[in-house]
Give the backbone structure.
Amino acid sequence: ESNQIFARDIYRGEYDFFLEKEINDGPASVAKTLRGRYRKQQDGMIAFDDLPTDIWKNLRAATDKGISRVYVVGQGTAGVAAVGIGYLIEKVLGRDTRRKIPVEAIRSSELSADIESYNFDRALVIAVSQSGTTTDTNRAVDLARERGAFIHAIVNRRNSDLVRKSDSVLFTSDGRDVEMSVASTKAFYAQITAGKLTALFLADQLQTMTEIELAYELGELEKLPAHVGRVLANEEHIAECARSLAPYARYWAVTGSGVNHIAALEIRIKLSELCYKSIPVDFTEDKKHIDLSTEPLTLVIANDLPGDLVGDVVKEAAIFKAHNGRPIVFATEGADADAFEEYAERVISLPSIGADLAFVLATVAGHLFGFHAARAIDVGAQKLKQIMVGLELLAMQSPEADVKDVVNRLDAFLDEAIDGAFNSGLDASHLAKVAHVSRQLTAKIDQPDVLKAVAADAAEPIRNAYEETSRPVDTIRHQAKTVTVGTSRPEDALSPVVRDALGAMALADSRLSFGNRKTLAAVSRIVDTVNWGALLDIKTQDGISFASAANGSNLPASISDYQDGNRAIGVVGAALDTNSLNCGFVKDEAVIAVPVTAAHSADVEHVLCLSVGLVAHASREQKSAVMQVLGTYQSKMREWEQHFGTDAEAQLQRQIARELPSTIVFKPSALDPLLSDENKQSA
């Protein structure tokens, strides 16, 4: 079937390039993808039913029958979008521990090649494609459907092959958002938006998120068009970064960890497509596929980081710079961006957004960087183009020929080359040949009879140099393959506020046992403030532990009973009894007590006390994780099973979602099944 193109599709408006126009179309593409896909109820909650057109009807029926697993497939840029969508779905389905639904993102070609290794019994296959005609994706869909999978398509083109092959379809934008540039941009933003909508629909159907959680995440998704617009408003700064650095760097790299790696994968594709570079992509902490000795220009995607990891990634940026590399860091505006200023060649600040969508904003900035980097590299080609014209006139012995002008242009070009202005596109052999042309013309400048032959011979090396620096932007001569590698994430990093409190006491966290350090790290993720920190000396006499102020320091009023020594009781005593972190109240203050070992032995020498204030809101996932590490989750689970039987965990999870973090950590006894909202409603 032919694909119809209308005048509006090829109208660039104020832009010189389709790519630039299509990046700037991003906010509209995302907004159109959201339109009519859900409704808001009077109480602010979200619903996916009773729409003018029930686009979710077939997928709803499939989820009602039960879904065993989810595969997300795509190829090229859509393949990277599939990775992002898989991540978003896995996050929302994983919030309910009752649901053990595996989610896997796979390249379409890989699925087809090893089709018998996958189980499609009650499987949901989400196929992502801009055109709906991608051969690899459609082949994978055919094979999966033959084996019983339900196919949900995220696609831009109506009436395409993929639409006809699918059981359910969610169109990106309005179903015909044409991209004229070969490098896909706005389609990626819209595909992720559609994927997030699909994830929230599945979470609603399978009840893995509360209504409040759904409303919050949909609210963040609704902010995405405006936030993309804010990134676009920063285009001049991004362009300056590209112009100042891209032409001067022969070797490039892109890094990102966690969800940021998805943005790194997509940005790498665009940089390779637009700038004709072979670019490694890696996890920021790993760098095995990046040769630091090449001093690469490195785009470090770091705008979606937990607070306790920012410091670690700052160190990684410092490593790049210490190797004479040029790190350009994409970071969340504010404190995160400020933290990188000292160690980055440039910092590109991005708006803050929740619901795991920040990687989309980094991708938009990366696309803009790629566009302006290609333009900057192409400047060299335009200068060589003028030299080529001059040589042609000389070879034709045209009256308009001006050998001195050609020589001057060549010399000016070589002067810039000495400063490294063409390092990105030209290697030593090309520059040597350009210099040779300049010498030959200079030597024969007063011999017009010989200049014709010299100019004719010079045409090929100059043309070759031109081709090496030419970056046409909207068309592509070749593409490179993406390189990926796995890495693990540190789970025991202390949050900055707790780390700073330990630093103020000159207490190394290595003096906490591995288990206690890991527990403190988990709890620290929901600590908002540390009001005070104190260290107690511990002495044991006749089997009884006594605590006193370490080094004669003055203790806060709430624990002043220990100033000159007293029996360890309450939360301090509990920490010593169990040799583990304990949380509780000392008078009216919420205190975390942690045993501290001696500098050179495993004996407990001190107890660290931290008076803390917790964040006002935390996800159910975070609160459950804290209960798990504190050892209160399983005991509560058993207690709730006495009242709710096999439905206990679901009921407990709902109650955890409703409770404040402070209750979860310091008053877990308040999670009484007899006082749960379900029992209140029954009463």
Remarks:
- The longest strand covers residues 527-541.
